[in-house]
Specification:
With 257 residues, this protein is α/β, with parallel strands linked by helices. The protein is 37% helix and 25% strand. It folds into two domains: 1-85 and 173-257, 3-Layer(aba) Sandwich (Rossmann fold); 94-172, no CATH class. The chain has helices spanning 48-55, 78-83, 101-112, 117-123, 128-141, 157-169, 187-202, 214-218, 238-243, 245-253; strands spanning 8-19, 22-33, 37-41, 63-68, 71-72, 86-89, 175-179, 206-211, 223-228, 231-236. It binds adenosine-5'-diphosphate and magnesium ion.
């Protein structure tokens, strides 16, 4: 099959990011195809989170552009990019600690209809039962039905990340970006999360997963780009990347783990 048959959902075009004298990203070109799970792996400090932050509008690149669904999103605000259909799970979960699990998942559904959360909240009051049902569906999806009424702040780290995933799913994003979705999780929670990401994949959602742990992505990714010292040093299927000596070198050469 020729690649021209595929729709490119996200295109990172010649992106550079400098922090003072540090070239955190250099010459980054990346194409993410519709329905695929594209992993970006690399040792600590490689620039993975920086790349994700550029994609979601938290950082403006020094040069280059990010194109989502044919539209240049560089320069747009994070919430505008989110409204355009990009949802993301950050390395540190962003949840409302004082709200219940259910209310946390309902919140983005109220907000999604047209932006301004408070105004919209009133406008969507009549839809509360419907949104509640939808939220319960996604909470069940991430295996947290027993925690429906638990305050989010009291959840374990793994559960907080699963909650954040449910908060993303209810937005029905066109593109889901995940920054180390299993970081800090126990082996058991990691496996549950991998299963969940597989399930999402079967539904055809386009995903970019940033990972430090190679084992997590080898079972999930259709395509892997390997980042080291701000540059893409290898790209291909999991098998191709596994066999690439440059990749082993990058990991062995890194001082941290
Ligand atoms: P990774 O997610 O792959 O571990 P990061 O993208 O967090 O790597 O960091 C890449 C490099 O950029 C690191 O050397 C880091 O110290 C540096 N860096 C990241 N964010 C900033 C920032 N806001 N200001 C200065 N340096 C930064
Ligand atoms: Mg990171």
């Amino acid at each position: 099959m020729s690649t021209s048959d595929h729709n490119i959902v996200l295109h990172v075009a010649d992106v550079h990011m400098r922090f003072g004298g540090l070239h955190a990203l250099a010459d980054i070109d990346l194409e993410v195809e519709e329905g695929k799970t594209h992993a970006i792996i690399g040792p600590n400090g490689a620039g993975k989170s920086t790349l994700l932050n550029v994609c979601v509008g938290r950082l403006a690149p020094t040069s280059g552009a990010v194109v989502f669904d044919g539209q240049i999103i560089t320069g747009m605000k994070p919430h505008e990019i989110n409204q355009a259909g990009v949802a993301r799970v950050f390395q540190t979960p962003e949840i409302f600690p004082d709200l219940s699990v259910l209310d946390n998942v309902m919140a983005p559904a109220f907000a999604r209809r047209d932006g301004a959360f408070k105004l919209n909240f009133l406008g969507n009051m009549h839809r509360e039962a419907e949104i509640r049902e939808e939220a319960e569906h996604f909470i069940n999806d991430v295996g947290m039905t027993a925690e429906l009424d638990t305050h989010a702040g009291a959840l374990s780290r793994g559960d907080k990340r699963r909650l954040e995933l449910a908060m993303c799913l209810i937005q029905h994003p066109r593109l889901l970006l995940l920054d180390e979705p299993t970081a800090g999780m126990s082996r058991h929670d990691t496996n549950t999360t991998i299963e969940l990401l597989r399930k999402i994949k079967e539904r055809g959602m386009t995903k970019v997963i940033i990972e430090h742990d190679m084992h997590v992505v080898f079972s999930l990714a259709d395509k892997i780009s390997v980042l080291a010292q701000g540059r893409i040093i290898a790209e291909g299927t999991p098998d191709e990347v596994r066999a690439n000596p440059k990749v082993k070198e990058a990991y062995l050469g890194s001082t941290q783990e």
